[in-house]
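Researcher: Going back to the complex we discussed earlier. I've cleaned up the inputs and rechecked each line, so this should be the final set. Can you rerun the prediction on the complete assembly and write out the structure?
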Amino acid sequence: MMRFATLIKNPADWMKGAGPHSDVVMTSRVRLARNLRGYPFPGFSQERQRIELLERARPVVEELPEMRDGYSEDYTELSKIRKQVLVERHLVSREHAARSSGCAVVVDRKQSISIMINEEDHFRIQGIRPGLNLTSAFEVVDRVDTELEGLLPYAFDPKLGYLTACPTNLGTGMRASVMLHLPALVLTEQINPVIKAIGKIGLAVRGLYGEGTEALGNLFQISNQHTLGEAEPEIIAQIEKVIEGVVRSEVTARAKLKEDHQTMLRDQIGRAFAILRYAHILTSKEALNLLSMLRLGADLDLVGNCDRSLIDMLLLEIQPAHLQLNAARELSPEERDSMRADLTRTRLQSIDGPGSFPPSQSNNGGTTSPTHDE
Amino acid sequence: MKCDVCENEATVFLTQIINGQMTTVNLCETCSKAKGVTEETGFGLAEAFLSPSHRTESDTMEIVCDACGFTASQLKKIGRMGCPECYAAFRDGLDGLLRNMHKGTRHVGKRPSHTSAVAPQILPRQRATSVKEASPSAPVVPPVVPPPDVAKLRAELDLAVSEERYEDAAKLKSEIESLQPKASK
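Model: Rerun complete. Updated structure for the full complex:
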C-alpha cells in the first residue's frame, strides 16, 4: 500500500484538473452511506464490534480494483495532524477524524475515491471530481459500491432502501455536494437571496467544512437533503440544474463588477495581492478571504501570469494541519500565522500582480515589478 | 459577524430549515457550547421522531430492538438508530417522520443486484417488552407471512388521520381501496 507521505506529496487529481465551470465550481463530491447486516451502527456498537467489522471489511475494501495500491490506514496509527490533513483535503469528515479505535480510511492513488470505515455508518464511499461533474463522481462511487455489495452483505430494505444510522440518509444514502466560489455574489450582496432560494427547494447550503461552518473565502457547499423517494440520477440532475443557475448568476455578477465597478474591484484585488505578497502574519481566515479575491482577479484576467491551480493549492497548503505537516511538528497559532505568511509570500513571487491591467489605462499604483526583498 | 447572544465574533453558523423557513443563528464558540448547538440537530430530529402520542406511551412501555437492545428513549435522545433492524422495531410513526424529512417514503433508487446483499424485508414486529392493548395503529402481522401492503397502508392512514394530514389520508384511502379486491382482507 501507499504511504501517507507519498499520498500527500502529490496533489490530488481534482486539484490539478480543471472541470466544467472550474472558475466557479471548485469540486463535485458524491458520497454513499452503506451498512452491513448483522452489526450495530458504529455510534451504538462496542469497540470490539467495530474492530471485528473493520477487520472483516478493510481487506475487502483494499482489494477493490479501484482501491488497489492505494492508501489505507487504521486510525490508531494516525496522528492528530495527519488526520486533520485528510480532513483539509476532504478525504475524511471531521466527525470521522475525531474517532480512533475501530476506524480506518482507504484512499485510491489519485485521491479521487475515499472510503471511510465506521464513520456514522459502516461505510462512507466518497468520490470527488474537479468542477461541476456530479455525474462522473457518482459513476465512480456507484461502481465501487456495486463491487462492494457483491462481497459483503449490505443492510437493504425494499421499501426504505439502504438502511442508515440516521433516518435523514435512508433510501439512496447519497449526498451529492458541490463546492462553489462565489465572490461576486458576496461582493454585490446578492448571496443571501440566492441561499434562501436554494434552501426553499430542499437543498442545503453550508460553509467550507460542512455543517455549522462559516463560508470562509466565499466558498459555499450546496448539497441535497432528501435521500428517499427519488432516484440518484434525478437528485443529481436537480442539483446540477440549480448549480448551473448559480454559476450563471455569479458569472453575470462578475461581468457587472468588471463593467460598472472596476475601480472597486481592482482595489480589492490589488489589496489582496499586496497583503498576501508582503505580509508576515496571516490568520487562516484572512488568508482564505484574500486568496478568494486573488482567485477572482485571476479568473477575470485582472492578475497577470496567475494560474488558478496555484491559488487552489495555496488554499489547501495554508490550512493549519498542512502547515504543521510541512513543519513536521505542532505549531502554535502564532507560529502558524507567521509560516502561512512565509508560504504565500514565496508562492506569489512568480505572479506579476494586478497592476499591469488594463494595459490601455495602466495606472502607476500597481505592483508591476515586485521586489524580492524577503 | 457578531454572535447573536454576546458581542464576540461568531464562528458557528447554524442554518436550519424548519417548516420550509430558513433560520440562521450565528454564535461564538463559547455560546454555541453553552447552548449545545452541536447536539441541536440530533435533538431536534429526535423531538420530531416520536409524535406526542408516542411520548405519553413511553411512560408505560418501552419499545426495544430485539437485535441490538436499542430503546425508544435512546432513539429519542440521539435521533439515530442502533442497528439496521431498528427500522423494523421502531416502525410506528416512521412514515410520518420520513414524510417530513424526504421527498417520499418509498425508496426508488439503486438496488443491490447481488442476491446476498438483499436483507429480508423488514416486517412489522411484536412489542418487545409489553403488549400494547387495543392499538389503534400498526396491526401486528405474523412475521412468517409477507405483510399485506394494506396493513401497512392502514397504519399509515391511521397516522395521517391522527396527525390531521387529510390530503395524505385521502391518498392512502384510495390506495387501500384499489388494493382491497386483491387482498384477502
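Model: Worth noting: Chain A touches chain B through 56 residues (CB under 8 Å).
Researcher: Good, that matches what I expected from the previous run.
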